[in-house]
């Protein structure tokens, strides 16, 4: 398969960052340190994500991590260019939304005790929803005149596969927190597809 394991340094860096924060606690009035609640756990000890997850929940998180990771890298390509201000502004919004979501998805996988391997997933998936290396290189090498069009076309397709992953989670998943993330992703990226389509048609 071509280009389905891109942008691993971002994933590894996020994993290390999340892991460093996992052991922090809060100081009590008696001077002792109480461990902080794990991701997805409420102050009352209730876990909205819970242990009631299934393989579809795990697959959603493992597949969405490299997908978001790649979207951030592609957004950076637009931010490096002096192109259409509307495209640059959209790329900044995408990056600002998806970087925190990456941290949330990684926290879910840690909570479930699931391993996140480089490239995302557990090695059993081909990640066909990812942009190919060929497309990424076309974006890097595109002239100023063609970059915005190619970027919009590529991200419309990329968002479409994210919506498919989110819809699969809402259909087959069991974990309430994972499904909440999926609903947010689907709603936002559908709206961005509409926005990108309008820009492309201008």
From TrEMBL:
Q: Does the keyword Cell membrane apply?
A: no
- Quote the biased-composition stretches of kind Low complexity, using this chain's numbering: 25-45
Q: Where is the signal peptide?
A: 1-21
Q: Which superkingdom?
A: Bacteria
Spell out the residue ranges making up region: Disordered. 25-57
Write down the Gene3D superfamilies for this protein, in alphabetical order.
1.20.1260.10
Q: Which residues does the UniProt record annotate as the domain DUF305?
A: 57-200
Which keywords has UniProt assigned to this entry? Signal
Any one Pfam family here would be DUF305
Output this protein's name.
Answer: DUF305 domain-containing protein
